[in-house]
Automatic annotation (TrEMBL):
InterPro entries: Fatty_acid_hydroxylase (IPR006694), Sterol_desaturase/TMEM195 (IPR051689)
Listed PANTHER family: ALKYLGLYCEROL MONOOXYGENASE, STEROL DESATURASE-RELATED PROTEIN
Taxonomic classification: Bacteria, Pseudomonadati, Bacteroidota, Flavobacteriia, Flavobacteriales
Protein name, as recorded: Sterol desaturase family protein
Superkingdom as given in the UniProt entry: Bacteria
Residues passing through the membrane, by range: 17-37, 49-72, 92-113, 150-170
Source organism per UniProt: Flavobacterium cheonhonense
Pfam families linked: FA_hydroxylase (PF04116)
Main subcellular location of this protein, as a coarse class: membrane
Subcellular location: Endomembrane system
Fatty acid hydroxylase domain residues: 100-233
């Protein structure tokens, strides 16, 4: 555990970039060899859009990182946050508890609120407009959403009282988990199902990308599936029945055009019922 703490305390930005790029490359190869859905799309053009949004997410997080670092340091200095108020525990249990709580506040809660608050949905919608879900979709987030998520991450760090190594560990696991759950692959159904009792599995997250409610408003989990199961937001749909996208924006000229995707949050709001 000490080695893990040491490594993530000072993880170089270059290593983080390599993990991100390496993950995309790995899942790209697997999904090209064994695709779950045979999309008729231009994989490179589609990836271009999603990688643009990945880069804007990196820029937003990089520019704001000092806030996160100061917040984490403040919680350590002032003994603030849930982890600091719990009794002393085994380092592994401490790390898993911290990761679970960061996942709850910084990811699950953030995601749920993005679906429930119209103003935030306008930004998160860009992630959902993708009708060709593959590993590059994982980090397709409008820059506005990246800021929203950053605020929740900071809130999570504050309430959990997590040291910075834990935040970096969480973010690294999250990047790879996201690339995995969006990859256009299909695990054997039994394996996927067993996995979904602990972690968000590819099938579980893809239900969240089904184009119609109520499925879009379920399975908000990021790394751990426990929060959806605990709070009753878990749902299941057979993978053969999935249709990706969001019913309000199914036209490629809208969801496959960078300029339009950037503009969507500022366009007239469309309620899903209009298209029912
Ligand atoms: Zn969502
Ligand atoms: Zn997604």
């Amino acid at each position: 555990m000490n080695e893990i703490i040491d490594y993530f305390s000072t993880i170089p930005s270059a290593h983080r970039a390599m993990i991100l790029a390496g993950g995309i490359a790995l899942f790209w190869l697997i999904e090209s060899a064994l695709p779950f859905v045979k999309f008729s799309y231009n994989k490179w053009q589609h990836a271009g859009i999603n990688i643009f949004f990945t880069l804007t997410t990196i820029v937003v997080n990089f520019c704001l990182a000092f806030i996160l670092i100061r917040t984490a340091q403040w919680t350590v200095d002032h003994n603030f946050g849930l982890l600091n108020w719990l009794p002393e525990m085994n380092p592994w249990l401490y790390a898993i508890t911290g990761l679970l709580l960061l996942d709850l506040i910084g990811a699950y809660l953030a995601h749920l609120v993005e679906h429930k608050v119209k103003f935030l949905w306008r930004f998160h919608l860009i992630h959902h407009t993708d009708t060709w879900i593959d590993t590059t979709t994982g980090n397709r987030h409008h820059p506005g959403e990246s800021v929203i998520r950053f605020v929740f991450t900071t809130l999570g760090v504050l309430l959990v009282g997590s040291p910075m190594w834990m935040v970096f560990l969480y973010q690294t696991l999250s990047v790879v988990a996201t690339q995995f759950t969006h990859a256009n692959i299909a695990l054997p159904k039994r394996i996927d199902k067993i996995m979904s009792f602990v972690l968000v599995s590819p099938d579980m997250h893809k239900v969240h990308h089904h184009y119609k409610l109520p499925y879009t408003d379920s399975n908000y989990g990021n790394i751990f599936s426990v929060w959806d199961r605990l709070f009753g937001t878990f749902s299941y749909l057979e993978r053969e029945q999935l249709v990706y996208g969001v019913d309000t924006h199914m036209q490629p000229k809208e969801h496959n055009d960078l300029k339009n995707l950037l503009a969507i949050p500022f366009q007239k709001y469309r309620s899903p019922e209009d298209n029912a």
